[in-house]
Design a protein that fits this description.
Structural class: alpha/beta
Radius of gyration: 30 Å
CATH topology of one domain: Nucleotidyltransferase, domain 5
CATH class of one domain: Alpha Beta
Number of helices: 3
Distance between the termini: 67 Å
Oligomer: single chain
CATH architecture of one domain: 2-Layer Sandwich
């Protein structure tokens, strides 16, 4: 750290009312310390923000969809259990829950339904959920897949 030593006057600068000269150095060490702490916090918490039902998705070469609103996610895990936005829903309760969702939607701008099914489930289980979606009037359904890395 540098000091401004002037000659005479007990270390005071003469002229301009005896004020001290402005310090020309900026100490960035506290800023760097705070930024590093924030970086560590974000690195630790970011993986915890991704939640959901573990589903092994099939692959597809289709492009991703553009979305305005947050979609409603329906997932069927490898045991055939259905989840709506991460909450388990029994087979008997599924039609009622889908009707509640359909009643709460805006008719002019329906929310997108993202349907995820594990590769281990049967075709019939996926069709049962799609049939209930159609019966409830939720026709804006997208099937979620992972990106394809292989070639035909």
């Amino acid at each position: 750290m540098a000091m401004n030593l002037s000659s005479g006057g007990g270390g005071r600068r003469r002229g301009r009312g005896g004020r001290r000269a402005p310090m020309a150095e900026i100490n960035v060490t506290p800023l760097v310390d705070v930024m590093l702490v924030l970086l560590i916090i974000f690195m630790v918490t970011a993986p915890l923000l991704v939640t959901g039902v573990p589903v092994e998705l099939p692959e597809s070469r289709a492009n991703a969809l553009d979305q305005k609103d947050e979609p409603i996610e329906i997932a069927i895990d490898k045991n055939g259990v259905t989840f709506i936005d991460g909450t388990e829903v029994g087979q008997a309760d599924l039609p009622e829950r889908l009707e509640e969702i359909a009643a709460a939607q805006d008719a002019n701008a329906p929310r997108q339904i993202m349907l995820r099914g594990d590769t281990a489930i049967s075709y019939g289980q996926m069709m049962r959920v799609m049939g209930e979606l159609n019966r409830a009037g939720l026709n804006s359904v997208s099937l979620v897949t992972t990106g394809s890395s292989g070639e035909n």
